[in-house]
Each structure stands twice: as structure tokens, then as C-alpha cells.
Amino acid sequence: MNANWTRNAFVYLLIIVAAAALFFNIYRPGETPQAITISDVAGRIREGEVSRIVVREEEMRVFLRESETPLISRKERNIPLIRTLQGMGVTPTQLGRVNIVYEPPSGSGNWFALIINLLPLILIAGLFLFLFRQSQSGSNQALSFGKSKARLFTGDMPTVTFGDVAGSDEAKQELEEVVEFLKEPQKFVALGARIPKGVLLVGPPGTGKTLMAKAVSGEAGVPFFSISGSEFVEMFVGVGASRVRDLFEQAKRNSPCIIFIDEIDAVGRYRGTGLGGSHDEREQTLNQILVEMDGFGTDTNVILIAATNRPDILDPALLRPGRFDRRVTMDRPDMQGRRQILDVHVKGKPLAKDVDLNLIARQTPGFVGADLENLVNEAAILTARRNKRAITMSEMQESIERIAMGGPERRSRLVTAKERKVVAYHEAGHAIVAYLVKHADPLRKVSIVPRGSAGGVTLTVPEQDRYLVPRSYFVDRIAVALGGRIAEELTFGDISNGASGDIQQLTRMARAMVTKYGMSEVMGPLQIGRQDDNVFLGREISEQRDYSEEVAEQVDEEVRRIVSSAYQRVRQMLTTYRSQLDIVAAALLERETLDSEEFIEIFEGRAGEEFHGSIAPQPV
Ligand code: ADP
Ligand code: MG
Ligand code: ZN
Q: Quick one: 555 and 442 in the same domain?
């Protein structure tokens, strides 16, 4: 243990010293020389730009009058500099203005400089020797750069199964098929079924994506190769692509198996858009992944699972059919989900009788699985420090606060009671309008579980793919988007910035109606402004203004008219259904998520008696 520690410390020290020496050797602070040719030097002397030249053997440092940093050049061996310059048309007068200094060669006398120059080499050689000896004595991988760092988990690893992943039932159902395929590939192949090659797990950090991927391999009883996108790009240039190759090779030899690529956005980001053409490490790695995936036949029983919390920035090439064409969403859990996750993590921990897991679930909106695991763990630690036998509610409460206060990115996550209420009314407003209007997509689900930067969501589903979108649809969509803001206004007499996304969306729709689809009576069927969606430039840059100031004013006027008539309409609706707004908001505060049937029952008053007349809203 101790010997190990000193050895590691020694290696780290060596690496640091070598890196520092290399850095100073190459960088030479304050002086980043630019190399120029000798004829360039002659030219600059003729222009009178050069003040001084310091010559040491073949190397010249050329100092310009207006700059402190010298340019570097080389003179020809064994030919006097002055002769060369004169041969290039520099006159004696011009030469007279330059102060030429000869330095003695840095000969054998200058031991110090020599050692400084060689130090990094010596250290690196020493390091390699050291690692080499180590790698011979044991199983050390430090020398196998380029070899995949994917680790092989075989049957003897503690196998995680779907049972360990609480909630996420929809995700499990979708992955069930993958498990079956890995277990009995012949069955599928015999039917000529096309098996998914790639599954993309999408969800915020800590929602159990890694856990879920492991559970798939656990359920299927196949090896699990994993690598993280950020590892691909980590240090050695040109290594990413060869790592991918090794990884896939190793996986194919061990099929059926799973390759798990965590944080795929680190390599799979949208490739260069053509501005400042890039051909970097990341891109080569990504290309290699695509090549390997395409090389899989249907008989290769390797399934790729990738995880990301930023599906929006992924390169479309990754998402094409035959690649990561299955998408499985891991959302932040709602109250019930949080309860189930807590159940998983309190297993085997002594709980005092006063611990109410339902109450904890209720108090932790926005927490993901990792937070809840952390919560239980913190509580256990606190309990031990207090020399108690079992975790009580007080330790649980303290841990909730600690985690909510946690890292800076997490701090805002525990929404206050007031904010929750505003969000509940906001989403209730969207949902009610979505339910009442005739032409927009029907309501599917409304939730106040925070998502990304949004406090909640109201999901609607198109009944079918729409190719032709009627005007009435746009009008109703704008109304739905306004529902949140107006519900806040009616309830609290104040409004929040929570509607900014809605407002952006409805403004775009109204503007498109006027300028793109010719849906405004006043403007008529005209396209206003050139509207090519240029993917390379931002929309603002590419939209050419080819109409007059007057037309621009008319457009603004029309957009405003569309939105304000929608505004009147929605205000009217929500005023009429004011009591339903209270009831739905109360139900959301209680249950966090309502699907469309639950919503309708509550709205129509057939269920949810407990919500009727339950709250008198206070101003925020
Ligand atoms: P992600 O990969 O999405 O960032 P992880 O899979 O690494 O999240 O989750 C971290 C930990 O949080 C897991 O090891 C597990 O203990 C806990 N966890 C997350 N989601 C769940 C869940 N649905 N059920 C049980 N535990 C979970
Ligand atoms: Mg993860
Ligand atoms: Zn909204």
C-alpha cells in the first residue's frame, strides 16, 4: 500500500516535471518567434524596417524597429550574411542602418543550456523505462495508448437488472425487445427481422441512463463494453478513431454483447457547418463510429447503446436509420417515480418508524435518481455520525436541504412552494386551452416536473402527421401558447418570465402566418422577405429584407393583431373556466403529472372531488 503510493507519487512527479520542462522549452514565455526567409529579411532591410540582427551560427534573430519580438530566420552556412544580403540587392547604406551582432556559438561550454534542453527528453525516457518495467512485471495498460479503454464486464460482475431501475417503465418496455434479441438472436434472424443496431438513451444527468444500459446487459446476460465520449477526445491526437476500431473489434469477438457509449455528444456534436472548415479529432472519431456501425451485418449480435443529455446537438448522421434510430427517453421522475426510486435505495438500510417516503417524494420535485440515492446515503452518514441505530425523518430532511443546496448547477432545482404554484397554474392554463380549442393537437399529458430550464410541460400529440396545416390550427396553437401566461395573470395579478419560451414560439408562428404562408387577410397571399432557411448562417443573417419600411410596419401590425385577438379569446376562455383552472392547478400540485384521461375527469368534474374548492390562491 505504502510502496504503491510512493511509486505513484514518483510517476506523477516525473510527469509534471517533464511537462513543465517541455512547456518552457517550446513555449519560451514572452517570445513566440515567427520564421521568415532570408529574402524576406533582405526586403525588410531595404524598407528600413530592421534595427538589429543577432546572428548565432546559422540562426538569426531579426529585430524590427516597431516590435520587441524578433523574427527568426536562417542564414546560409559558411557564407557571410552581408554578402548574401548584398546579393539580394541590399545597398551598403541600407545595411549601415542595421546593427548586426554576432554571438558566440553555444558550444560545449554552455552545459546549463544543454541540460535544460535535454531535460525533458531524459525525463520522458526515464518515465517510459519505468512504465515499461512496470508493464512487464504486471498487467499495466499505460503503454497501450490507442487500445480501447473499454472495460469488459463479464458474468462475474454484480449484475444489475431492470429491477434495480425504479420507475422508467416505458423505457424498460422499449428495451425489453433489445434484451430478447440479445438472448435469442436466432429467433429474430430466422424471421428476417431487422434488429435495431443503436439505441439512444436521452435524459438529464442522473436519471439512470448508465444504470439502464447496464441493466439491459444484466437482463440479457451478455458482456458490457463501455466507453465515454469524453474519453475519446481526451489527450492523444489521432487516438480516438483507433480506439473506436479496437472497441468494436473487441466487442465483435465477444458477441452477443453491448457497447455503451456514454456522453456521445462529446464526439457526436453537429459537425462543422462549413464556416472555418474543421477536420478535427472529434470528427474523425465520429466518422469511425459511423463506419463501424455501418459495417455491422444483421448477423452481428452487437447492440450499441449511447447516452446523452443533449440530443439536440447530435449530428444528424448519427440518428439516421440503421444507426441510433431508436430513442428512449429517461425523464426526471415524478412523485410516484421518486417514491419507487427511494424504495430501491433504502433497501437494506434501517429506517425509523417516522420515516415517510411518500412525504420525501413529495418534497423533492426535480430530484433525479442520482439525487435520491445521494439523499439516502447522506441520511445514513448523518445517522451514523449521530450514533443512532436507524435513519429518522430528521436526517432525511437535513439531507434534502443539503442536496438541494448542493453544487451551483443544482441550487435552483428545489423549486419553492410559490414557484411550484405559479408553474401549476401556468401549465393548467395551457392544458385547459389545449382541451377547449378544436383545431390544435389534443392534450396528452400535463406535468409540473421540471424539465431542463422549463418549470413544467404541457404535451400535445398530433393525431396524424400533418402535411397541410390549416390556418385554424395555427390560430389555436397560438391560443394554447398564450394559456400559460394568461392563467398566471388571472390568478396572481402578476406575470413571470416563465412564459418566454411560449412567447417566442407564438411570435414565430404569427409572423410566419403573415410573411410566409400568406394567411393574413390584410397582407394577402404574399411572401414577404426572402425566406430560404440557410442552415449555414443564422436565420437573421439570411433573411433578406426586400420590402419597404411601410410593409414592415404592416407586417408588425398584422402579427400584433393576430396575437392580440388570440389573447382576448384565451382570456375569455380562462375567465369562463376560472374554477376549473383552480381545480386543475390543485390537482397538479398534488399529483405533479396528469395524463389526458385524468385531466378530462378532473376538468369535467367527474373525479377529483378533493380538489374542488380546495384552495384560495394567494398573490405571489
Ligand atoms: P446517468 O447515466 O443518467 O447520468 P446514472 O445511471 O449514472 O445516471 O445514475 C446514477 C445513480 O443514480 C445510479 O447508479 C443509481 O444508483 C441512481 N439512479 C438513477 N436513476 C435511478 C432509478 N431509476 N432507479 C434507481 N436508481 C437510480
Ligand atoms: Mg451516466
Ligand atoms: Zn408555458
A: yes
- Do 489 and 539 share a domain, yes or no? yes
Among candidate residues 231, 427, 558, 592, the one labeled active-site is 427
Q: Which atom of ligand 1 is nearest to the CA of 167?
A: 23
| 487 pLDDT more than 90 | yes
Q: What is the CATH number of the domain that holds 297?
A: 3.40.50.300
Q: What is the pLDDT of residues 264-320, one digit of tens each?
A: 888 777 665 444 444 567 777 888 888 888 877 666 788 899 999 888 888 888 888
Whether residues 101 and 119 share a domain: the answer is no
- Same domain flag for 235 and 215: yes
Q: To the nearest whole number, what is the mean pLDDT of the chain?
A: 79
Element (H, E) at 151: strand 151-153
CB 267 within 8 A of CB 286: yes
3-state secondary structure 479-511: HHHHHHHHHHHHHHCCCCHHHHHHHHHHHHHHH
Q: Is 340 in the pocket of ligand 1 (CB under 6 A)?
A: no
Sheet holding 151-153, edge to edge: 151-153, 224-228, 257-262, 302-308, 198-202, 326-329
176 part of the active site: no
- Please report the atom of ligand 1 found closest to the CA of residue 201: 3
pTM above 0.85, yes or no: no
- The residue among 358, 385, 405 that closes a domain is 405
Residue 555 lies in a domain: yes
Counting ligands in written order, the one closest to the CA of 330 is 1
607 — pLDDT class (breaks 50, 70, 90): low
Q: Decide if 610 is inside a domain.
A: no
Taking the CA of 502 as reference, the closest ligand is 3
**Average pLDDT for 492-500:** 88
Helices (H), 386-416: 393-405
Q: How far is CA 287 from the centre of its chain?
A: 19
Q: How far is the CA of 598 from the centre of ligand 1 (A)?
A: 29
Cα 240 from Cα 287, distance rounded (Å): 10
Taking CA atoms only, the protein residue closest to ligand 1 atom 5 is 208
Q: Ligand 3 mean position to 424 CA, how many Å?
A: 10
Strand residue runs (E) in 180-320:
198-202, 224-228, 257-262, 302-308
Query: pLDDT digit string (tens) for 551-581?
Result: 889 999 999 999 999 999 999 999 999 999 9
The CATH number given to whatever domain includes residue 366 is 1.10.8.60
Ligand nearest the Cα of residue 458 is 3
Q: Candidates 157, 172, 200, 211: which one to mutate for ligand 1, based on the most atoms within 8 Å of Cβ?
A: 211
Is residue 611 situated within a structural domain?
Answer: no
CB-hemisphere CA count at 13 Å for 324?
Answer: 27
Based on the structure, what is the number of domains in the chain? 5
**Domain boundary pick from 82, 117, 146:** 146
What is the whole-number distance in angstroms between the Cα of residue 582 and the centre of ligand 3?
A: 17
Instruction: Say whether both 554 and 537 belong to one domain.
Output: yes
Residue 355 structural domain? 335-405
Q: Examine the domain organization and report whether 85 and 180 are in the same domain.
A: no
Report whether residue 502 contacts ligand 1, using a CB cutoff of 6 Å: no
Q: CA-to-CA distance for 209 and 229, rounded, in angstroms?
A: 14
213 CA to centre of ligand 2 in angstroms:
9
